[in-house]
TrEMBL record:
The lineage of its organism: Eukaryota, Metazoa, Ecdysozoa, Arthropoda, Hexapoda. One of its GO terms (molecular function) is zinc ion binding. This is SWIM-type domain-containing protein. Residues 83-122 form the SWIM-type domain. InterPro entries: Znf_SWIM.
Length: 259
């Protein structure tokens, strides 16, 4: 820990509200000059990265200024040296003076580690007050992957406990029955039912035509050809020709060109 700094916890962190965050980004062109839609900035501030990558948070207050420092684990090379990020806040004016990463190559132009730390402090400010004290001077969770922490399960990735619901097919059965009642043709789930039949030109596709036949017919080539001769009459061929006139621009054309 640096000289005159103390460990950060949920009782001594400075408040960073949404307006402070908005004014900081507005006054720092490094974070929006490259793209006006802020796609990369939004991704950098996501909770799934910052909450696991940030650790060893410390702070120091002097003359109305609060200086926060943290260690941030790299997103991809989690075993590499952590980056040092510093943020300075004017608590009297409710203003973020600066937020900068000192180690990564992109730090001069506003890197994602600075954004992640800023949004991490903002999320801590939005949390409801707690009677217990949570210390933030701890090793980042992400940096333990591959050492003491060999893997993270899906359940551990969620902060909220997901209730266990018993497996049942009632909803599936009700959905299939309702879809058949409404004669839905564009639902992928319905297409895998044994009694499904295409009602449009698609039923003339060689693949669909064969799959619609009973197993006995599918195994007998002569019977299959005889049925095809009676099915593909002039009316059917005319309907296929009209539906596939756009050729390669029509998805149906790729199905029918085998005929």
């Amino acid at each position: 820990m640096d000289l005159n700094f103390v460990q950060a916890d949920n009782s001594n962190l400075p408040k960073v509200d949404a307006l402070m965050v908005a004014f900081f980004f507005k006054n720092n062109a490094d974070y929006y000059a490259a793209e006006l839609k802020h796609v990369k900035t939004t991704m950098s501030g996501r909770e799934s990265y910052g909450d696991d990558a940030i650790g060893y948070v410390q702070l120091h207050r002097e003359h109305g200024l609060c200086t926060l420092k943290c260690k941030m684990c790299p997103e991809h090379k989690v075993r590499s040296k952590a980056y040092n990020v510093t943020m300075v806040i004017n608590e009297n004016e409710s203003e973020i003076i600066s937020c900068q990463c000192h180690d990564c190559a992109a730090s001069a132009g506003g890197c994602k580690h600075a954004v992640a730390f800023l949004m991490w402090v903002h999320r801590r400010s939005e949390e409801p007050p707690s009677t217990s004290v949570e210390c933030y001077w701890k090793k980042p969770t992400l940096s333990r992957v591959g050492t003491t922490l060999k893997y993270i399960t899906v359940q551990q990735m969620s902060k909220k406990e997901v209730p266990h619901r018993p497996s049942t097919s009632a909803l599936y059965t009700d959905f299939v029955l309702e879809a058949k009642k409404r004669k839905l043709q564009h639902c992928e789930l319905i297409k895998y039912q044994d009694d499904f039949k295409h009602s449009n030109v698609m039923r003339y596709s060689l693949h669909c035509f064969i799959m619609d036949q009973p197993p006995k017919i599918q195994a007998d080539v002569d019977n299959l050809v005889d049925i095809m001769k009676t099915t593909f009459n002039r009316a059917a061929i005319s309907a296929i020709e009209e539906a596939t006139r756009m050729q390669y621009k029509s998805s149906l054309w790729y199905e029918m060109r085998e005929m």
